[in-house]
Amino acid sequence: MTDDAVQDQARQAKRGRIGALIGGVVLLMGGAVVFLLVQMTQVGENGPKVGANEAEATCKGKSPGCLPEIDIVDVQGQVFTRDSMRGNVVVINFWATWCRPCLAEIPALSKFYTDNKSKGVYMLGLMTDEVELEKLEAFQKRTKMSFPTVRVDDQLLEAWEYPEALPTTFVYDRDGKLAFSKRGALRESELEREVGKLLAAEVEPAAEN
Questions:
Q1: Does residue 164 surpass a pLDDT of 80?
Q2: How confident is the model at residue 112 (pLDDT cuts 50, 70, 90)?
Q3: Rounded distance, CA 145 to CA 123, Å?
Q4: Distant-in-sequence, close-in-space partners of 87: CB < 8 Å, separation ≥ 6
Q5: Which has the closest alpha carbon to 52: 40, 36, 37?
Q6: What string of DSSP letters covers 95-153?
Q7: What kind and span of H or E run contains 181?
Q8: In the predicted model, is pLDDT for residue 100 greater than 80?
Q9: How confident is the model at residue 138 (pLDDT cuts 50, 70, 90)?
Q10: Is the per-residue pLDDT at 199 higher than 90?
Q11: Could you give the residue ranges of the DSSP H alpha helices within the chain?
């Protein structure tokens, strides 16, 4: 065999090894892209994940991706807990009176809550600014806010991992698992679509201790 033939075979073998290496890298990159797309679509397009990918089949204790196991007390003194709201779809909306997008979505949220609370929907507005009760009640009356308002404290902020934007909304299914979240103002049609799917689903049996 001539030297040229030997060199040609060596070049072909080298190209084969390079081709196999490139093919392997492409496959790995493709798998990574698919994995990321799956992760991004599990909890809503724009919202934070809050450990949703680790959520258990039935929420118990401090299960990640579940409605926090914490007392939520509105300005009227009513207490809401994960257990007391189990079997219902729960909408948690972080907002503030100075937040223009928050104010813009209040009419849609209020109408949706009024129309759906009898169907098994809880909606709680977690207010991040400090407003005197008298002024808050006047604000609620003026804006026709129909859902309960909760004053946010450090414990609530920590439970929801300090939302980075206002408004931010979390929607939990009837088992208490995070199903949808969004940063920014919600449209009523979005709530109708997401909550409607959850209301149609069957609630899972409560886990035995």
A1: yes
A2: very high
A3: 11
A4: 120, 174, 203
A5: 40
A6: E-TT-HHHHHHHHHHHHHHHHHGGGTEEEEEEE-S---HHHHHHHHHHHT--S-EEE--
A7: strand 178-183
A8: yes
A9: very high
A10: yes
A11: 3-40, 82-85, 100-116, 133-143, 154-159, 188-200
List Cα–Cα distances, 57 to 110, 112, 137, 177, in angstroms: 31, 28, 39, 8
Which tokens sit at 36? 């990321």
Start-to-end C-alpha separation, the chain: 78
Q: What is the pLDDT of residue 66?
A: 94
Closest CA to 82 of 94, 99, 98, 70: 70
Query: What's the sign of the alpha-carbon dihedral 57, 61, 64, 67?
Result: positive
Q: For the stretch 178-196, what's the b/e string if a residue is b when 16 or more beta carbons lie within 10 angstroms of its beta carbon?
A: bbbbbbebbeeebbeebbe
Check if the beta carbon of residue 39 is closer than 8 Å to that of residue 52.
no
User: pLDDT by residue (tens digit) across 17-58?
Assistant: 544 444 454 444 444 433 333 333 334 445 444 444 444 456
Tell me the C-alpha distance between 91 and 156, whole Å: 15
Does the model's pTM come out above 0.85? no
**Tokens encoding 198:** 């959850």
3-state secondary structure of 72: strand
